[in-house]
Structure to design on (210 residues):
């Protein structure tokens, strides 16, 4: 199956046969190009977190909306309602049940997942790319390893469709913790309204500023 997908990728790219590392780098560039040309996207997501120390796994589901150059809305629906919004300048994390919202200035240094989804580029300057065996049909898997030691990230696996659309992102840190985002029902360039990425702090909630 991977061989067939690689052939599809090579034909679409008009490329000659290459080493796995070159194909992996080509896939990363295709991801960056596709997402850089996408003004916005909306998708259902499943986020799973597995603790390396405790071995427990937490699975959450919801809907994510992204608008370039730096706006995000992660609306968690199961098992607990939560809302994470970035308006491009400020992060808001709101948990209605706790009646609490955390407010932080947005750092210019984005996470790897955000950089991939925004198509910001420069991934290959910081990561070595190689191909790995995918866990499901219809995708290719790229393994990214930091070129320099990273205190927060040991390696990442990106499942990508041959056209360059990200299907899932798996991140592992040096303590063995694993965070995976899977995206389904992706819709691109839908003209998302700006109001989705604005957050008004509800009255009566505790505000914690980071």
């Amino acid at each position: 199956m991977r061989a067939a997908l690689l052939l599809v990728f090579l034909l679409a790219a008009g490329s000659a046969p290459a080493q796995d590392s070159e194909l992996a780098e080509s896939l990363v560039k295709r991801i960056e190009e596709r997402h850089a040309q996408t003004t916005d996207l909306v998708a259902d997501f499943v986020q799973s977190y597995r603790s390396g120390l405790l071995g427990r796994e937490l699975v959450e589901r919801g809907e994510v909306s992204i608008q370039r150059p730096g706006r995000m809305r992660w609306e968690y629906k199961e098992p607990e309602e939560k809302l994470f919004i970035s308006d491009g300048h400020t992060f808001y994390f709101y948990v209605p049940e706790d009646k609490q919202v955390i407010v932080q200035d947005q750092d210019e240094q984005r996470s790897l997942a955000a950089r991939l989804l925004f198509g910001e580029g420069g991934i290959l300057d910081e990561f070595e790319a190689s191909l790995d065996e995918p866990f499901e049909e219809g995708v290719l898997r790229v393994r990214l390893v930091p070129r320099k030691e990273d205190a927060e990230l040991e390696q990442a696996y990106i499942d990508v469709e041959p056209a360059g659309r990200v299907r899932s992102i798996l991140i592992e840190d040096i303590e063995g913790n694993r965070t995976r985002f899977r995206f389904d029902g992706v819709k691109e360039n839908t003209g998302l309204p700006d109001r989705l990425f604005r957050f008004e702090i509800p009255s009566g909630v505790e505000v914690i500023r980071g």
About this structure: Helices lie at 2-13, 20-36, 112-118, 123-126. The chain is about 20% helix and 40% strand.
